[in-house]
Give the backbone structure.
Amino acid sequence: MLTWIVMTAVATFRRAASAAALLALVGCGSATAGGGGSPARAKWVGSVIRTPDGGQLRTTIYYGPWQCSAAFLSRCERKCSAQGYPLMGCMWLADIKGDWQGRYLFLPAEAGGRLAITHCCCDYPTVSNGRQLREKWKNAREGFRRQWGSEFGEWPSTNGVNWQGHHIFDLAHGGPPVAPDNVLPVPQDVHQVFNDEYPACYAPGGKWLMPGPARPYVD
């Protein structure tokens, strides 16, 4: 049942992408439970939406960044090695939590799951067309927000100011600027922390190459 609702949450969170694509994005995915650490830096609670099976799903996003667990670091190391680059670090950016209510075998049922959003900082070269990639994102940004809003409710904002669209695989190293599974809405202060920490993740010998706990935050 847990696996089923995780897959439902994936399909709902990014209907435009396959579940396999999102699982690849988050480092093969995870069903984690919040625990053991301090409160998340920020969180977003979405509106309740109907699922194709007649149930209801609410999505919550918890924001880090946190150091990756040993398992995530190992996955990143394999990924970077397969691409021909050494691993410099791994950032656990956020957790997407899905809470489902509906019926199973004709009886009331509840279930839930989480997916970790991580980024492997392989020793990628920086790209020369970073400005063009950013302009492509700027030109598509409003349409992207509208599409996101049609699926999950209005794009998050604070005091009327839209949250930033954070590129998980960053544009400076060639991340796709408008791929649906590469952009996450992030509050401005958290986005600044992400931007400040990305260079450290790509630098040798930093904290982002050290393993963190399997459960880095509490709900």
